[in-house]
Design goal:
The complex is a heterodimer of chains A (217) and B (103).
Chain A: H1 10-72, H2 75-83, E1 89-98, E2 101-110, H3 128-213
Antiparallel strand pairs in A: 1-2
Helix pairs in contact in A: 1-3
Chain B: E1 2-8, H1 10-13, E2 22-25, H2 29-41, E3 44-50, H3 51-55, H4 58-63, E4 71-75, H5 84-97
Parallel strand pairs in B: 1-2, 1-3, 3-4
Chain lengths: 217, 103
């Protein structure tokens, strides 16, 4: 690991030591964040998968019913029946903070008081098959909303986990070793300086004693 | 208050209209992208989009991936399930964990 390009001074050493402590603490925190995010993510993604299977099944069931309805009714009659919906769905969106990832939570509101008010047509001109198709869709709708909520959460969390993992790895394998190496380098250099100073002093002392007392003879 | 929308070929999304989902028929990806851009700036919280249409506009969907809203959810259309939705879920796992451990 390459050491950083710094002057081997005592001040740099103190600075680096402080930085190392911060990096270690950041690493620990980010690791905890990653682990917790991963735990929640795996929980959610499992539910996501189950829910998606159910929803896809439900939609294909509704589509089958719709095809039947399309067969027994004329296109025009179907258009007329579905053109002006009585119901309108609104979502109340609240955001939940999970490990600093904002994940949405949807709360469904309907325009009319009765949320089962889904048949936007009179029963006289439409076939019963259309009712079945609309009912099938309406049965799957709460699950579809939940799917939207959970799938978006998974998407956002996957993003965040990837980012956090990169940060953890960068700290663990690049930043922290580099700081450690540099600290080692500086302290060795300082020690070396100290030793050389001591040797020099001893040498000078020797020379001075020699001059004063002529020990050599 | 946010609204919900469905984009796709007319036959696939028609039924949602009666449930109070706003429907926007689109026949090809270019049209879908145009509608999606318009809806994303309006108050739409959830946008369902048929898998067939979504397959042609992945780059566009990517742009909304990091935004908390709208949630863009692929759903199977009348012409059958392409498996794009489940693939997406696998992709999330792959992104987060490194490999798809659930499949």
């Amino acid at each position: 690991m390459a050491i950083m390009n710094v002057n081997p001074t005592r001040m740099e050493l103190t600075n680096l030591k402080r930085k190392l402590v911060t990096a270690r603490r950041g690493h620990k925190l980010l690791k905890d964040k990653r682990d917790e995010l991963m735990r929640i993510f795996l929980e959610k993604v499992r539910e996501n998968k189950e829910l998606r299977k159910e929803v896809e099944e439900g939609i294909s069931r509704a589509n089958t019913a719709m095809s039947v309805a399309r067969c027994v009714m004329s296109d025009k009659a179907l258009d007329v029946a579905l053109m002006l919906p009585t119901q309108e769905m609104y979502l109340n969106v609240t955001e939940k903070n999970v490990m600093s990832v904002m994940i949405p939570a949807f709360d469904v509101k309907f325009r009319t008081a009765n949320e089962h008010d889904i048949y936007s047509y009179g029963f006289a001109e439409t076939s019963g098959e259309l009712d079945i198709a609309v009912k099938a869709l309406s049965d799957i709708m709460p699950k579809m909303i939940r799917l939207a909520e959970i799938e978006k959460s998974c998407q956002l969390m996957a993003d965040e986990i990837e980012k956090t993992r990169r940060r953890v790895n960068a700290l663990e394998h690049v930043m922290i070793p580099r700081y450690e190496e540099t600290i080692k380098y500086i302290s060795m250099k300082l020690d070396e300086n100290e030793r050389s100073t001591t040797t020099r002093l001893m040498k000078v002392k020797d020379m001075m004693l020699n001059q004063a007392h002529h020990y050599e003879q | 208050m946010y609204k919900t929308a469905a984009i796709g070929d007319k036959d696939s999304i028609y039924g949602f209209a009666s449930l109070g989902v706003n429907i926007f028929p689109a026949e090809d990806a270019a049209e879908g992208i145009k509608i999606l851009r318009r809806l994303a700036d309006a108050d739409y919280g959830v946008i369902y989009i048929t898998e067939r249409l979504a397959a042609g506009m992945t780059a566009e969907l990517e742009r909304f991936a990091s935004r908390p809203l709208p949630a863009i959810i692929p759903i199977p259309g009348v012409r059958g399930n392409t498996g794009l939705g489940l693939d997406n879920v696998s992709k999330f796992v792959e992104k987060a964990v490194g490999s798809d451990i659930l499949s």
